[in-house]
Amino acid sequence: MKILYTASEGLPYSASGGLADVAGSLPAALNALGNDCRVVLPLYGSIRQELKDRLNYVTNFTVPVAWRNQYCGVFTGVENGVTYYLLDNEYYFARNGLYGFYDDAERYIFFSRAVLELLKFIDFKPEVINANDWQTALVPVYYDVFYRYQQGYEDIKTVFTIHNIQYQGQYGLELINDLMGIPLYHTDMLSYDGDVNFMKAAIEVSDRVTTVSPSYAWEILDPWYSHSLDRELVHHQYKLSGILNGISQTIYDPATDKNLARNYSLNDRLGKLVCKKALCDELGIASGKEPIIGIVTRFVSHKGLDLIKYVFEDMIRLGYKFAILGSGEKIYEDFFTEMHYRYPDRVGLRLGFVPELSRKVYAGADMFLMPSQSEPCGLAQMIALRYGTIPIVRETGGLRDTIRDAGGENGNGFTFKTYNAQDMLDATVRARAYYDDKMRWERLVSTAFKQDFSWERSAKEYIRLYEEIS
Q: Residue ranges of the Glycosyl transferase family domain (predicted)?
């Protein structure tokens, strides 16, 4: 199949979260199965120069943004066997950072329209266009309004993937006339609760809507998870499904990871003990036989940090040590900083995000804590398993789909259901009991090493979905 995959970020060019991992891995997995999947991204000013140097200029054209026409340059590159098209407009994209600007709506209105205009200038007609999150949600909308019946655009199907429903692209209704250039008789399609809502419009017009895990697909039909979009999703749930994300088995491999003090694998685990000691040394934790809980996350409330705050010292009293990496809201940064100063030999902390250190945490920790309030998919728990580190998670979204409690059949971690600090503490008590029983713990770690969350499985499910609608 011919697939055009469009997103606001994607590795190796740009990244701020899990979307970049998906856009950087799924197309390659689709191509490995014999398809032709190509990716369209913005040409951000923050892209590394060595990657820019490998790009080739193709052409340029103008893109209608309501009453104005804006320049768009096209550059192409091949990375990991995938053809990338990077769309250039320095006014919109030559900035320090990806998002958070006053004109984000205009920037991604331009980009979404440019994705479709691009097809007039390249020798590639996709059978399916897969757009992702609110930044490219207008691609299926513009296709439905302006392009569906144009010559060369016939019979293209559209898929819209929701990675995080919290960010929907909500703006004032004046955007329809001022920036979108869409006739006002389409207002009902674009509006939701009195605002323009990019994501709602994409849900309405796309042929299929997907999320990044099966559990998240039915969770977002509930107002608790949907950030008010449940009414629209319930109305269109006949075209909603969830496909679990994967991780790269080569990028995340303790047997070859150059960031580790010593490599290891299922059949040679001595390196994990070396990595544990190296992690302790780097973060200033006292070395010992006590279990280390790793936490690598953004410091925001929906990651379950309130639960951690509530029983943190109870977990210290259970004998746990902590290796914590992340940044975000000041209330959580201040809390973990205080715990670090209060228990300097038991709590290692690094504020910010250091990719190399995150690998060391995955490798050197014994357990990995993710008590999320909501988690569309989550990659960290899969990476932890890949490194033989046992996840402790709340049963929500992709965490429910990937982690099975050790108390049941084929367990690969420890889970709890309710968003409750005492239930989370109980999961850590059970994990500690397993850890102290060396034979049971070694069996659990062996199970972790054997888990398969490769992208090939996910890619096959996407192909089935694309074929259903083509």
A: 288-427
